[in-house]
């Protein structure tokens, strides 16, 4: 599992199927059912088609989907039209504009050759800041974020939210989250986001 947080705290909990942090669909369903009220459950997957993604999302019972891989913009658009929930796409800053009209949100990540994300590496935050300013779609910043750098990332990029997975995992048990690291990450992201909101709203 992984998640998004913004200035107001954790807002999304993600369950991963057909990705490097995958769990079986039935286990994903159990996790989605356990997500508390007012927190969005998100299926993270690498589908071959819109139809495959919709079928899996309905079986797992999630509020939103986050798509990785190489689906073309028109197929992502079909997914958005067929799925009763938000559709997010993980991409890099270079290809983000191609998908802006086809999704409800973009997760700008440090993708690998397979387009999978989850690399644990940061990318050019200044380029991602340009994406935030240029596109009329919420942008979630991902890629190599950890408690020690998330505040700087938020200050530079000013994203809608930030995404973390490996950056809060236990060193001795990859895939398992470290509770202290999660709390530190959320606290620092939230504190920086709140300060940015105060500056934006100031005289």
How much strand? 15-25%
Helix content: 25-40%
- Report the total helices: 7
* CATH level 1 name: Alpha Beta
Spatial strand arrangement across the major sheet: 1-2-3-4-5-6-7-8
Over the alpha carbons, how many angstroms does the gyration radius reach? 16 Å
The SSE order reads EEHEHEHEHEHEHEEEH
Shape descriptor reads globular
- By DSSP, the count of extended strands is 10
Structural class: alpha/beta
Account of the 3D structure:
The protein is globular, with a radius of gyration of 16 Å. It has a single domain (2-201), classed as Alpha-Beta Barrel (TIM Barrel), CATH 3.20.20.70. The strands form two sheets. An eight-stranded mixed beta barrel has the order 1-2-3-4-5-6-7-8, surrounded by six helices. Strands 9-10 form a two-stranded antiparallel ribbon. With 203 residues, the chain is an alpha/beta fold. Helix 2 (50-60) runs parallel beside helix 3 and helix 6 (150-157) packs parallel to helix 7 (179-201). Helix content is 37%, strand content 23%. The longest helix is centred in the last third of the chain and has 23 residues, at 179-201. Strand 1 (2-6) and strand 2 (9-16) form a beta hairpin.
């Amino acid at each position: 599992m992984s998640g998004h947080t913004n200035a107001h705290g954790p807002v999304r909990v993600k369950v991963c199927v057909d990705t490097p942090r995958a769990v079986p669909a039935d286990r994903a369903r159990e996790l989605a059912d356990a997500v508390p009220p007012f927190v969005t459950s998100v299926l993270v997957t690498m589908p071959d088609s819109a139809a495959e993604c919709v079928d899996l999302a309905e079986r797992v019972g999630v509020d939103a989907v986050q798509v990785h891989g190489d689906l073309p913009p028109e197929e992502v658009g079909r997914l958005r039209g067929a799925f009763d929930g938000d559709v997010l796409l993980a991409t890099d800053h270079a290809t983000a504009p191609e998908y802006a009209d086809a999704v409800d949100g973009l997760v700008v990540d440090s993708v690998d050759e397979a387009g999978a994300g989850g690399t644990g590496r940061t990318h050019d935050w200044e380029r991602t800041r340009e994406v935030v300013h240029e596109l009329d779609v919420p942008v979630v910043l991902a890629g190599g974020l950890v408690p020690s750098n998330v505040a700087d990332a938020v200050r530079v990029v000013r994203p809608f939210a930030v995404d973390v997975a490996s950056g809060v995992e236990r060193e001795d048990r990859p895939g398992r989250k470290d509770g202290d690291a999660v709390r530190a990450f959320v606290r620092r992201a939230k504190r920086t986001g709140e300060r940015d909101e105060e500056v934006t709203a100031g005289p």
